[in-house]
Amino acid sequence: MRDALTNPFQPGSDTVPEIWAGRTAQLSDWRDVLRPRLVAGLFERGRTLVGEAGLGKSALVRRIAHEAELAGDWTTAQIRVALGTDALKRIASEVLKLADRAGLPAAREGRIAELLRRVQSVAVSGFSLALSEEGGQESYTALTDLLVEVGRAAICQDQIVLIHLDEIQNIDDERMLSQILIALGDAITHEEPVTVPGGGQITRSLPIAVYLTGLPEFADQAGTRKGATFARRFKTTTLAAIDDDDLRSALRPFVVAGWETSTGTNGAGRVRMDPDAAETIIDLCRGEPFLFQLAGERAWYAGTGDVISREDVIKGWQEAVPEATAHVERVLERLPQREREFALAMAELPTQERTLTRIAASLGHSKATDAGPAAQRLDRVRGIITRGKPYTFRHRAVEAFLTSDWPAAG
Ligand SMILES: Nc1ncnc2c1ncn2[C@@H]1O[C@H](COP(=O)(O)OP(=O)(O)OP(=O)(O)O)[C@@H](O)[C@H]1O
Ligand SMILES: [Mg+2]
User: Fold this and answer.
1) Which 3 state secondary structure label does DSSP give 248?
2) Which domains are seen in the chain, by residue range?
3) What's the gap between Cα 8 and its chain centre?
4) Which of 17, 24, 379, 400 is close enough to 406 for a disulfide, judged by CB 3.0 to 4.6 Å?
5) 56: Cβ below 6 Å to ligand 1?
């Protein structure tokens, strides 16, 4: 029963995991704020979700998009920007799909046919067109104009549009990034005149939700270079680890009722998890969704019985140790030198002594403020530390790695 086909844990995949934990603030932001406001025609900023690798950015917006899709909304696929590829092309072709869904190709106005043609050429030539003399300004205004048409169709058909652009830090060409953000931003800030019952005219926003997800570096790129306009159009949240309580709730059905396993050949059955085993998973993964899935997956394979025991978790984790190590090392390796050194120096001090002054001193700075910028970035941009009194680690796996023999299981 406990085999590869029935294992509900999915480390690494950015599809919506079967065992979902937390992120209630972001889910509720979509359900209770963003979507209702767009339905009502009110302006609402796009959402930027950044965070370190494996924190569940892609999975979160996939889940939101999945919910939206079930509600009948028009959603794009998760538009993943691969490094060195032409993001403008991808976006143009996804916007064309939205236009199809909105029924725009059937429209009789020549204006719309012309607009579709313009965006089709962006989908073919991408950013090279945007750079050319004739195509420059043209290609992103075409994208905005088509999005506005999709938005208008959505108003008429009582629909919401959701666009998800993932791995946005990979748009390394500054001009391309700027054009894309302007095109999307112009569409969400567009004001559309509508007639209200009784005949009066008011303006409303288009029902278009934009989600941008990626590594924290993106917030820098977009923040400093694009400045205030970007901040007015997109609201940025830095994701942090998942609370233990949320992980506990996620495993609860497993502990109480068991996980139903039914495969074609073996028939239905249930696999339960000992409360002890659940607590051990929670302890080992330190709030990291990727490690949570990894610990669960390994524990599932570590035994054959109907109950996943604490021993299974420990045995499974032994095999996961290299991956857990690599996961944290990747986070540390990506840090700029000053930030990495700051994190290392902070980890070496006893918890109560982790103040800016003490950390700066052990880094050999003469003034505490010299270490300020690195601390600020680790806190505000990356969500790895919190600059409280004293400073604490928000990335608990990084802390455990630097201060104990974790990921070795006791
Ligand atoms: N809320 C959640 N509950 C349980 N598991 C989750 C949750 N969110 C993500 N995961 C799991 O964590 C792992 C990492 O998720 P995901 O790929 O979405 O992270 P990411 O932040 O997009 O990472 P990257 O920066 O590498 O793209 C996946 O295995 C996913 O199934
Ligand atoms: Mg991702």
Assistant:
1) helix
2) 24-238 (3.40.50.300), 244-330 (no CATH), 335-403 (1.10.10)
3) 21
4) 400
5) yes
